Amino acid sequence: MKGHHQRWLALAWLALCAYASAFLLLFWEDHGPAGSPVAQADDIHCERNWLLLGTRWSCTAIVTDNGMRYRYTSDSSLLTPADTSVPMQRLAPHHFAPARASSNPVPWPTMGAVTSIALGLVGAGVLWQNSRGKRPAAKAEVRRLRAQARWYVGAGMLAFLAAHFTHGLLITARADVWPRRAEGTGEATSCERDWRYLGALWRCDVDITADTGQKLTRTLSHSQFTQAEIGIPKPVTAVGARWEVVDQPSEHRFAKALFVLLLAGGIALLIKPTYDLARIRELEDPNLPARFLPVR
What we know:
By secondary structure, this protein is of the alpha+beta class. 39% of the residues lie in helices and 25% in strands.
């Protein structure tokens, strides 16, 4: 196997072990024994959690506590599609969980995650070291570097595109603070597809009537209103200088981490051909002493 193939295999093995570690840590969501119900979760919506290969349910619900509404999200089947209304216990002032008990087989998930990371580091280290054993000829190395430069650029642009969609669909389009107090009412007058996200989201002109009596018109993006909701009033709240719908989905807890990883990955992929270009010039320069020609 060629050296650069072994390096890619090392990175793939490390990524696979890191995913296995995350899978073990995220599969179980433990809040301990059953507690006293103090609130009620309704409006429950569930879908398969494909981050865990569809083995768990990812559900959202609205928790009502003394007239205040909170968004609750569970990614590991603490709620299921069979639930319609679930009593909730309080874990912190604004943190709730189902009143039924939950547990995980400690310490095995943590031990398995640590073992998986250790295997990933050892295996990647061995493969990476083996990839440095055989050095190709200078001309062959130049051909390889030139051929793979366009793949790095393409992959970097795809990473930036994925970061753009992650930011729009999983961060900007979702609320990061709950509870959210209604400070007015909004009613969409017209909507169109938002082609910044290939038409997957709606952006609408909304007439807003604030509780203070002020009337204004704003454009709300990220499907806070849709074509089917034109003329239907919805509660809105002021977030800084902008207005948002109160009942937005909550921000996924891994969205910002994924956004940062994609952004950093895109930058790294675009920088790599720049480094390779300097390496190509070094290999092709006939004036360099022979001792500089072999690939490091």
